[in-house]
Design a protein that fits this description.
With 871 residues, the chain is of the alpha/beta class. 53% of the residues lie in helices and 17% in strands. The protein has an 8-stranded mixed beta barrel, surrounded by 4 helices. A 5-stranded antiparallel sheet has the order 5-4-8-7-6, sandwiched between helices. Strand 2 (78-82) and strand 3 form a beta hairpin. Helix 5 (105-122) runs antiparallel to helix 6, helix 6 runs antiparallel to helix 7 (162-185) and helix 9 runs antiparallel to helix 10. It is rod-shaped and about 155 Å long. It starts with a strand and ends with a strand.
Length: 871
């Protein structure tokens, strides 16, 4: 065997795709081809004149046999790819040395040209016919001239076959040299060391082939029945060659499958398709070029056309590797695969088309592509058609595509379709990881990635947060589906306003926008505009929902003395600004460092609260309650106080809402409940029967296990349930009545007293009181304080007293601060009073001192000790 390069299409190394279509290199190669052709013709003429022609009738038999031998040698080739360099290994030396030994120059030249050029014309691969014709002439003329010169110089010294052997080896080296020269002209030159190694290998394999041909000739011509022996050996060699060729083919096919899969995977890992750019979802068609080129190399085709639907909503994209498509074929590229007769591919099998035996519409499609033969296979994913692969005109062999090529293309297409399906799935997972499923906008993670890019680039950016504020009411009245529709509509509105600026839905009804290169004044204007846009009424079917919004923003340009901001800090600052905007007049605020101090203080309160409970910083104070009109002390309300080591005495309105919002209210309620029960137990041990009222929160009423914990605490302290009162606000019950009412009913069934606090400020209706299992109603202090100056407040108090008594409820008035208010409450029949007139909230020690100084012990109606307030 010899590493031969019978035509440009099969020579190695193969030039790059871009070099093949480079017009400048094409012109250079055309000029080079003309030089080679002229040299071949001149060499042929000179050799014909040098080597005498001896005609015999045997030539009529020898000539066709030589032509068949050259055709057979061309057919029995092995295409080998080593590191993307293609070699064609053939047996051409065997018919060449036989021709040198048995036939004149003209007959061998004609046989070679007939076999080589005829094969090219048969496969319509005549694009480099000038170069190939010139090389074929030189491959025959030079060996004949060398053989004639060697035999003439060594006549009588060397055997007659020595000259043909040297000439045949010269042909191998000549063919290799012209292939390297052609590669140099086309811009794909080898290094000198690689070219030298190629020449050595060519010479070694050529010598082996030449020896096989010479031995076969000698045996056949000198040994009786030698031709039969040669035939048997040839059959064995051909069988061995077929097995070896099949193994090489399988190895190459496996390498091709691996390369295609890796190329598809790598095309999805290029810049612009990762986490740094979560909005990018489609792969540019140019990134599939290595895949198309690898398929073309593996099948040794003139052209591979990939038609891919990279985006399900877009048209088919076309990529060509190898010879470019004719202009008319590019203009007629189908928008849909089934619009082309060559691409109407049912199933997933490879279909083969040839101009000789195809229907007229297929022949027109082939002629439009400038192809004689084509293989086409669809790329089918799990649920849809992803594209198609076309392979045009095999060029490395005189025959067309075979069954092995069809099997390989089918396997490649299956792997490619699977890889594309996986790419789409991976892209969908990546998209979902960075986008909100309801609105299609970025989520918090995606927004952080995009904003981080801007900050890494050194650009000043503003993070603007906008909150839609009516969704809780909409969800309660209409359901979550309607609130989701409002969120989606709000996202569309904001997208229309901000264009391509990064826009995200952070959570619930909160949106964030990144505004690069904006001043705070510009950001404030944008915030006002977006707030107005998001707060515009929302038409939902037959109703219109009025909306409200707030906005806050923070700039990445740090204030003097402030550290550099990152994305998380900007989002945190924007969140603080939104909280401040809720208390402002226009609903828009920019972040200021002072807001950060407030946020830091709240954060410290949350993180330090549990330690404060354990270290004694949190205490329970008690505000006494007295019965009217006799002024007996019936109990007290437990109120929590926090003496912070840094911030001093904290108002409950400052830290209790924070504790409730962070889930620590259970610990607070348990602490107050335990201290209150201890105080009741102390009073009982002293013969005093007084109750303590403990405030409950929304979270307590949503806890189904809360009644069991209360019952266990009462049993542990051996306290009757009626000495414990739980005060609850109307809003805490109505926040989730389906969960709160069962808890209240269980507490009431235990005998615990339930009181409605701040009555008159919430829903406050007879129906509301009737459905709650309560025992007391507390008039809000705002009405009690206004009784002396506002007749309306007095009317409200009188109404509540009468309403409570009509329902057999004890009525408690809080906020009693003067004797006039107390006398008025006595006149109305109010049962219990509480306020500064009686006492401020007191610590345990001060409460005991107050009881000793301000009350006297009297005997009750049931012989129990009762404390009565002194005048």
């Amino acid at each position: 065997m010899i590493e031969r390069h019978r035509s440009l299409e099969s020579q190695g190394p193969r030039p790059p795709v871009r070099a093949e279509v480079d017009p400048v290199r094409r012109r250079r190669f055309t000029a080079f081809s003309l030089v080679v052709l002229v040299a071949g013709l001149l060499a042929s003429g000179a050799t014909s004149a040098l080597v005498p022609f001896h005609y015999s009738t045997d030539l009529l038999f020898i000539g066709p046999l030589l032509a068949m031998g050259f055709l057979l040698a061309e057919q029995l080739t092995i295409d080998v790819d080593v590191r993307r360099v293609g070699w064609t290994i053939s047996f051409t030396e065997i018919p060449l040395i036989l021709g040198l030994l048995t036939a004149p120059f003209e007959v061998v030249l004609a046989a070679n040209l007939l076999a080589g050029l005829g094969a090219q014309v048969g496969r319509r691969a005549a694009s480099h016919v000038l170069y190939n014709a010139g090389v074929m002439c030189l491959e025959i003329a030079v060996p004949f001239a060398v053989a004639h010169a060697v035999n003439a110089a060594l006549a009588g010294i060397a055997p007659v076959w020595f000259g043909p052997v040297v000439g045949t080896l010269t042909s191998s080296l000549l063919s290799c040299g012209f292939a390297l020269a052609a590669l140099l002209v086309l811009g794909g030159a080898m290094r000198v060391s690689a070219g030298g190694r190629l020449a050595v290998r060519t010479l070694a394999v050529g010598l082996l082939n030449t020896s096989v041909g010479l031995v076969g000739f000698e045996v056949a011509s000198t040994t009786p029945w030698g031709w039969l022996l040669v035939g048997l050996v040839a059959g064995a060699v051909i069988g061995l060659y077929r097995a070896y060729s099949g193994l090489l083919r399988e190895q190459r096919d496996l390498e091709a499958l691996s390369d295609v899969s890796l190329s598809v995977a790598r095309s999805g890992q290029s810049p612009g398709h990762g986490a740094a750019d979560p909005d990018e979802q489609t792969t540019p068609v140019a990134e599939w070029e290595p895949v198309a080129e690898r398929i073309r190399e593996q099948l040794n085709a003139t052209r591979v056309v990939l038609r891919l639907r990279l985006d399900p909503a877009a048209d088919v994209s076309t990529l060509v590797a190898g010879e470019p498509l004719p202009a008319e074929a590019e203009e007629a590229a189908p928008a849909a695969l089934r619009d082309d007769p060559l691409l109407q591919l049912p199933g997933s099998h490879v279909r083969s088309f040839r101009t000789l035996d195809s229907p007229e519409e297929v022949r027109r499609a082939l002629r439009l592509r400038g192809a004689y033969e084509a293989l086409a296979v669809p790329l089918r994913g799990a649920s849809q058609l992803l594209g198609a692969v076309e392979v045009h005109d095999r060029v490395s062999r005189w025959r067309g595509f075979g069954r092995a090529d069809v099997r390989l293309l089918h396997t490649l297409a299956s792997h490619l379709a699977t890889a594309m399906d996986n790419r789409r799935l991976l892209g969908r997972l990546r998209h979902d990881a960075y986008h909100d499923p309801l609105t299609g906008l970025l989520n918090r993670t995606g927004f952080r990635e995009r904003a981080a890019e801007e900050l890494r680039a050194g650009r000043v950016a503003v993070v603007l947060r906008v909150d839609l504020d009516v969704l809780t009411t909409v969800s309660e009245a209409l359901g979550h589906t309607w609130s989701d529709r409002m969120i989606a509509a709000a996202g569309r509105r904001m997208r229309e306003e901000v264009g391509q600026a990064p826009l995200a839905r952070l959570e619930a009804s909160s949106f964030a926008v990144l505004l690069p290169d904006r001043t705070e004044e510009q950001a404030h204007e944008v915030a006002q505009h977006l707030r107005a846009v998001i707060a515009a009424p929302y038409p939902l079917d037959r109703i219109v929902v009025e909306a409200a919004g707030v906005a806050g923003y923070s700039s990445s340009a740090p204030a003097v003395g402030e550290p550099e901001n990152d994305v998380d800090v900007l989002l945190q600052h924007a969140d603080v600004a939104v909280r401040a905007a809720r208390n402002g007049e226009d609903g828009v605020r920019g972040y200021a460092p002072a807001m950060g101090q407030v946020f830091l203080r709240r954060f410290q309160l949350v993180t330090q609260f549990r330690q404060a409970l354990d270290s004694g910083q949190v205490e329970v104070h008690y505000q006494p309650k007295v019965a009217l009109p006799g002024r007996q002390v019936v109990g007290a309300e437990a109120l929590v106080r926090w003496s912070h080591p840094e911030y001093g005495r904290l108002d409950p309105d400052e830290f209790v809402p924070v504790v409730e919002a962070t889930g620590l209210v259970d610990a607070l309620t348990s602490f107050v409940l335990e201290r209150s029960l201890v105080k009741i137990r102390e009073w009982l041990d002293r013969g005093l029967r007084m109750s303590v009222a403990v405030n409950l929160s929304v979270r307590n009423l949503a806890d189904e296990a809360f009644p069991e914990r209360v019952a266990e605490a009462l049993r542990r302290h051996d306290i009757a349930p009626e000495l414990l009162t739980f005060e609850l606000t109307e809003s805490s019950v109505m926040a989730d009545p389906e969960r709160a009412l069962p808890v209240l009913r269980r507490l009431h069934a235990m005998g615990v007293v339930l009181a409605v606090d701040d009555f008159g400020t919430g829903y406050s209706s007879l129906a509301y009181l009737r459905q709650l299992p309560v025992d007391e109603v507390k008039i809000d202090k705002s009405f009690v304080l206004g009784m002396g100056t506002a007749l309306g407040d007095m009317a409200v108090v009188r109404t509540i007293v009468e309403l409570g008594h009509s329902l057999d409820l004890v009525v408690v008035a809080e906020g009693v601060e003067d004797d006039a208010a107390r006398e008025q409450l006595v006149a109305m029949g109010c049962d219990v009073a509480q306020g500064y007139l009686i006492s401020r909230p007191l610590s345990e020690e001060r409460l005991e001192a107050w009881l000793r100084a301000r009350t006297k012990k009297v005997r009750g109606t049931r012989s129990e000790t009762v404390l009565t307030l002194l005048h």
